[in-house]
Structure formats: structure tokens, C-alpha cells
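HUMAN: Now follow C-alpha cell order:
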Amino acid sequence: MPTNSQNELSQSKIFQDYNRWPQHFQQALQEEVQLNSLPRAERIIFAGMGGSAVAGDVVADWLSQHGSVPIEVIKDYHLPNNVTPRSLVVAISCSGDTEETVSVLLEAVKRRVPCVAVSSGGMLEQVSLKHHVLHIKVKMLSSPRSSLPFILVAAARIVLNALGDNEKEIELTRCGEVIREVGKQVSTETSTELNPAIELAKKIRNAETIIYTPTVLQAAATRFKNSLNENSKTHSAVEVLPELCHNEIEAWRSGVNDWIPILLRWSKEPPEVKNRFEALKSVMRNKGTEPLEVLAKGNDHLSRLISLIYLLDFSTLYLAKLKGINPLPTPNIDQLKKKLASKLSYLGKHVPK
């Protein structure tokens, strides 16, 4: 049975969002989106920042082995110089008011690169309407990061449509099933003793984390780092196999235990990943540090990514509560945006009145 403390958490808007991720994901799957106008693309470029960019990260990781079409994510104001009209730009801003994303969309329009926009409204929708860009409207919850089910499904369907691939739609359905199973374990309705997200939060409460990930789970690692920043207001870092074995591990020193390594893994790792992780664990222990391991669930790539994101995101919410922090507000980000708005006035210059 949930404790009184957990009952209080369930009343928080952002906790409510995450408790309902299975329902939100199912709702997103049931929404019909008209994508008949999308051209076949030789290159797909996501543009987004923060929680909105995660959808691009996930889709890029998920479909990284799909045919010969490269998928990349731009987290900046500008498109690469080598983008051609044979590409497709997918601009995602859950709020619709992310100036970097609006900038990329405007550049795509100017350079006659086919594009599609995804937002809950805002200036991205205004720009799309003005320039006759296909705009997909999605639901925004209490924050862009908690709205991931809606922007992820939209992003995935845009790319599958552009690739002419209907077969992988089944993986979206399976992903919804995995989210339901993970939700039973990590929601505020699950007792503390049986909740792996709460247990993880307890273990990392008094130290900063370094997240170690294979390339195929990098989207989940990046999301975890971002959620630790935004929800728990704590520093974190991501290191990627096998590159970290050629530099990062040299910084490990005996007797320095003010950080906790978290290894993102799955049950059917290829030998080069499994053996490297086991070797890393041995070196860490020799330096007096015991790593934590988080195991992805699911039988396909997308399910593994989302199962990790759901569990790890929830752990950052529980960590915030353990630290007496409200996970929803992001005052530093808000302050920075105000300063940039007064100095750059980017949206005021480029967005239609």
C-alpha cells in the first residue's frame, strides 16, 4: 500500500503526469495524424532543445540501423551548411516558444528544405501557418519533459512516414505495453519497498552521478542526465562506451568516492558490450567504488529505451522529494530565458505578429 508521503506525491502535477504515462502513450497512439504530404527523405534532421529534443534522440537511436537514411539531432539555432532540399527537417518544441527551434525552422523554409513542426501551439505553430509548413499539434502536460509520450509518438510517426516504413509501427504498440509494466513498478501507487525508482533515488541521494552507457542506449542516458538537472537540481554527466575506456577511466582514483557510477544495461548485450562492462566494474571496485546497474526491459530497441527513461525519470522525481525540492519549476532556466529575451529579442524579430 502507498504511504501518506506517496499519497502526497500523487497529488503533484508532475507526478500525476508520470503516473499516467501509460494512458498518455495510449492516447497518443490513438490520435490520427495526416502525413500524406511528407516527401521521402535522404536525410532526417530533428531540431529541438531540452525535453523536446529527447524525442529526436530516441527516434535517432531507435532507427539508427534502418537502411541508409541518416537521422541526426540539432540542438542549436542553425542548420548544418550541407543540408539539402532532399532532407527533411522535423522541428519540435513542446511549448512552441523555443527560439532555437523556431530559428532552425525558419532557416529550413528559407533554404527550401522540406519540414514539419511539432508543438502544442505557440510561436512554432504561428510560423508554420505563415509559411505553409505542416504542423502537428500535440498535448502539453505540466512540463515538456513529462509530455514525452505525445511528442515521441508524433516524432516517430513522422519519420516512419518519411521512410515509408509501416512495419515498425508495431514496436510503438509494444512500447506502450512495456510502459504499462514499468508503471506498475515505479508509480506512486507502488509501495516504497518494491519500487526500484525509489530505491535508486535513495542510493544516489548524497552524491553526484556519472552515467555510463553503450551507444545504443545513449538517448536514455542523455535524458537521465537532463532529468537529474531539471527535476533533482543536481549535476550529472554521461560517458559512452567504448570511448570512455580511452580517457574517462583514467580519472578514477582510489579513496575518491563523491560520485556514483550508474551503468545502463540490457539482458542481451553483444559480447563486446557485456565484456567491457564487466571489466569496467572490476576496475571501479579496485578503486573502491561500487557501481549501480539499471537494466532495460523489453524485447526491441525502442522498448528498452523507453523502459529506462520511464524508470530513471521517476527516480529523479523521487530524488527531488528526498532532497525537499519541488521538481516542477525550473527557475534558473526561466531567468536565463528572460535575460536572453531582453538582449536578443530573437522571437520578436522573426515571428509574425
Remarks:
- The CA atoms of residues 186 and 196 lie 6 Å apart.
- The radius of gyration is 20 Å.
- The domain at 31-166+330-350 is CATH 3.40.50.10490 (Rossmann fold).
